[in-house]
Amino acid sequence: MNQEKLKKTIERFEIASFTVSKKIGAEIKEQIQDVITSDQHLILRYIHKFGPCISTELSEIFNVQKSAITAIINRLVEKGYIKRSRDDHDRRVIYLSTTEEGEKIYKYTEQKVNKIVGAYLSNFDDEEIHSFLNTYEKLMYLVNK
Predict the structure, then answer these.
(1) Region 91-104: what's the mean pLDDT?
(2) Could you give the CA distance from residue 44 to residue 101 in angstroms, rounded to a whole number?
(3) Which residues contact 138 (CB under 8 A, 6 or more apart)?
(4) What element of type H or E holds 110?
(5) Which long-range contacts (CB under 8 A, 24 or more apart) does 23-32 make?
(6) Beta bridge partners of 94
(7) What angle is formed at CA 69 by the lines to CA 66 and CA 70, rounded to 5 degrees?
(8) Does CATH number 3.40.50.10610 belong to domain 36-144?
(9) Smallest Cα–Cα separation from 121: which of 46, 24, 32, 25?
(10) Where exactly are the structural domains of the chain?
């Protein structure tokens, strides 16, 4: 790809990525902010999907300082959405897992997210969605490599 075409492609990508992320992120935030922040939702979602984890894992996955993760975890613990449990073999290791109330909040927020994202995806046929996700997941793989 020549430099001019590459420049235009990158510009299109940046505009589309920024616009979609900001717009959908704002819609999700508006729908769940009465219960949980967007950052708290992402952490709760990760713990729900991947099971008990440690704060260092969250810090690495979300690419943020451990202190930022600790602040979010503290708020989620205060709300009763996650709990801390010490490892039986190494008391220094603390696992984070969802509580029953956390599972309820997760389901509530996921319904809101699914409604928002689903409304956009309903404008595409199955092949378009499949093609888009394959390409986007390929980009994700390259970014994570």
Answers:
(1) 94
(2) 11
(3) none
(4) helix 100-121
(5) 24/116, 24/117, 24/120, 27/116, 28/112, 28/113, 28/116, 31/112, 31/113, 31/115, 31/116, 32/108, 32/109, 32/112, 32/113
(6) 86
(7) 85
(8) no
(9) 24
(10) 36-144
Q: Give the tens place of pLDDT for each residue, 22-68.
A: 999 999 999 999 999 999 999 999 999 998 999 999 999 998 999 99
CB contact at 8 A, 13 and 51: no
Total-model pTM? 0.85
**CA within 13 Å, CB half, 54:** 9
Q: Which one-letter amino acid corresponds to residue 97?
A: S
> What is the per-residue pLDDT across 66-97, written as a single tens digit (0 to 9) for each?
999 999 999 999 999 999 999 888 888 899 99
Q: How many CB atoms lie within 10 A of CB 71?
A: 13
Q: For the chain, state the CA radius of gyration.
A: 18
